[in-house]
C-alpha cells in the first residue's frame, strides 16, 4: 500500500511539473508583471513576401513588460499554424522573425536563453513554436529592434525571403540564425574599435555550454568569424574582424577547450543590416560562432 501511495504522490508531482512547463514555458500563460506591452490586441499582424501579403488581419502578439514569453491567444496559434503550413507548402521560402522591445526593457534580466537582448529572446521563443510545427531551424532567421517611446504596437514582425538567399550579393543582407550551432554576438562584447574581448553574461553562458558540448562531441569543431561595420577601409576591417575572432578563440582556449577552433574574418563584406544607424552598425559589428 505504501509503495502505491508514494507512486501516486510522485506521479502528482510529475504531472504538476509537466503542467507548469506547458502552461508557463510553452504557452506563456503564467502570471508575472501584469503590465502588458500591448494595451489591447489589434488585428494588424501580417506576413509578407516582398510586397505580397500572404497572411493578414491577425492579432498582434502580446507580452508582459520585460518578459520573453508571449501571452498567446487562439488567434496567435492560428497565425503560427498558417505560417508553418505556408513554409511546408513553399520550401523556396524562409522566414525572418524580428523581436521588438522598448528602451525601458533593455535592462530586463534574461534567463533560460543564450540571446543577448529581449528582442532576440522573444523571436527565439516563437522559433521554438515553429520548430514544434516541423519547420527546419535553418529556414528561420532572427532579428531584433529596439523601439523608442512607451508603447510597443508590434512586438513581433514576420517576413518571408527566398530560401538559400545569396549572401554574396550586394543586394541582400545576410540572414542570421542565433541558434546553438550558428550563434552570433554583437560588439557589446568589445569596446568600440577594439579587439579586447569582454564577454557579457549571455556569451559566458553560451560559451560554457559549447565547452561542455565539445567535450562530449570530440569530432566537432568551432569556427569563429569576425564582422565589422562599414567605417574604415577594407584592409583595416578585415584585420579588425580577424583580431576579434582570435580574441574569442583565446577565450575558449582559456576555458580548456581542446577541439579545433578556426578563425576567419569577413570584415564589412556581409552586413546583416544597412549601416545607416548606430543600432544597425552594432548589429554588423559581430562575432559569428559555428559548430561544425
Summarize the structure.
The protein is α/β, with parallel strands linked by helices and about 290 residues long. It contains six helices and nine strands, in the order αββαβαβββαβαβαβ.
How does this structure look, described?
The chain folds into two domains: 45-162, 2-Layer Sandwich (60s Ribosomal Protein L30, Chain: A), CATH 3.30.1330; 182-291, 60s Ribosomal Protein L30, Chain: A. Helices cover 34% and strands 21% of the residues. It contains six helices and nine strands; from the N terminus they run αββαβαβββαβαβαβ. The protein has helices at residues 2-26, 74-89, 118-131, 201-216, 234-254, 278-284, and strands spanning 45-49, 52-58, 93-102, 140-147, 156-162, 182-186, 222-227, 261-267, 286-291. Strands 2-1-5-3-4 form a five-stranded mixed beta sheet. It has a four-stranded mixed beta sheet with strand order 6-9-7-8. Strand 7, helix 5 (234-254) and strand 8 form a beta-alpha-beta unit. The termini are far apart. Mean pLDDT is 85; it is low at 1-36 and 166-171.
Write the layout of secondary structure elements.
Elements: H1 2-26, E1 45-49, E2 52-58, H2 74-89, E3 93-102, H3 118-131, E4 140-147, E5 156-162, E6 182-186, H4 201-216, E7 222-227, H5 234-254, E8 261-267, H6 278-284, E9 286-291
Parallel strand pairs: 1-5, 3-4, 7-8
Antiparallel strand pairs: 1-2, 3-5, 6-9, 7-9
Rough shape? globular
User: Low-confidence runs (pLDDT<50, min 5 residues)?
Assistant: 1-36, 166-171
Q: Structural class, please?
A: alpha/beta
CATH superfamily grouping of the largest domain: OmpA-like domain
Radius of gyration: 21 Å
How many domains make up the coordinates? 2
- The main sheet orders its strands as 2-1-5-3-4
Query: How many β-strand runs?
Result: 9
CATH class of the largest domain: Alpha Beta
Please count the helical segments.
6
Percent of residues in beta strands? 15-25%
Could you tell me the CATH topology label of the largest domain.
60s Ribosomal Protein L30, Chain: A
Q: Architecture of the largest domain, CATH level 2?
A: 2-Layer Sandwich
Amino acid at each position: 500500500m505504501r509503495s502505491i501511495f508514494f507512486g501516486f504522490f510522485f506521479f502528482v508531482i510529475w504531472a504538476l511539473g509537466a503542467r507548469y512547463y506547458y502552461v508557463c514555458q510553452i504557452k506563456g500563460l503564467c502570471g508575472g508583471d501584469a503590465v502588458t506591452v500591448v494595451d489591447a490586441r489589434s488585428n494588424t499582424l501580417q506576413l509578407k513576401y516582398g510586397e505580397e501579403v500572404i497572411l493578414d488581419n491577425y492579432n498582434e502578439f502580446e507580452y508582459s513588460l520585460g518578459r520573453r514569453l508571449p501571452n498567446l491567444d487562439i488567434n496567435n496559434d492560428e497565425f503560427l499554424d498558417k505560417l508553418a503550413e505556408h513554409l511546408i507548402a513553399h520550401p523556396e521560402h524562409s522566414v525572418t522573425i524580428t523581436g521588438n522591445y522598448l528602451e525601458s526593457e533593455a535592462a530586463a534580466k534574461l534567463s533560460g536563453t543564450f540571446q543577448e537582448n529581449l528582442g532576440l529572446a522573444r523571436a527565439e521563443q516563437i522559433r521554438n513554436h515553429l520548430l514544434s510545427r516541423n519547420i527546419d531551424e535553418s529556414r528561420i532567421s532572427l532579428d531584433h529592434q529596439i523601439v523608442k517611446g512607451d508603447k510597443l504596437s508590434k512586438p513581433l514582425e514576420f517576413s518571408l525571403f527566398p530560401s538559400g538567399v545569396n549572401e554574396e550579393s550586394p543586394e541582400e543582407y545576410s540572414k542570421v540564425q542565433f541558434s546553438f550551432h550558428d550563434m552570433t554576438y554583437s560588439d557589446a562584447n568589445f569596446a568600440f574599435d577594439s579587439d579586447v574581448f569582454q564577454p557579457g553574461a549571455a556569451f559566458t553562458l553560451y560559451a560554457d555550454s559549447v565547452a561542455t558540448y565539445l567535450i562530449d562531441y570530440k569530432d566537432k569543431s568551432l569556427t569563429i568569424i569576425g564582422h565589422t561595420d562599414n567605417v574604415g577601409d577594407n584592409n583595416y576591417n578585415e584585420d579588425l574582424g580577424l583580431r576579434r575572432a582570435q580574441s574569442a578563440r583565446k577565450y575558449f582556449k582559456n576555458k580548456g577547450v581542446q577541439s579545433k577552433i578556426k578563425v576567419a574574418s569577413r570584415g564589412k563584406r556581409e552586413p546583416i543590416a544597412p549601416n545607416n544607424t548606430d543600432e544597425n552598425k552594432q548589429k554588423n559589428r559581430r562575432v559569428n560562432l559555428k559548430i561544425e
